[in-house]
Amino acid sequence: MVDELVLLLHALLVRHRALSIENSQLMEQLRLLVCERASLLRQVRPPSCPVPFPETFNGESSRLPEFIVQTASYMLVNENRFCNDAMKVAFLISLLTGEAEEWVVPYIEMDSPILGDYRAFLDEMKQCFGWDDDGDDDDDYEDDTSPDFHGALKIFQCFPYQGIA
Question: Which intervals hold domain DUF4939 (predicted)?
Answer without folding.
Answer: 28-138
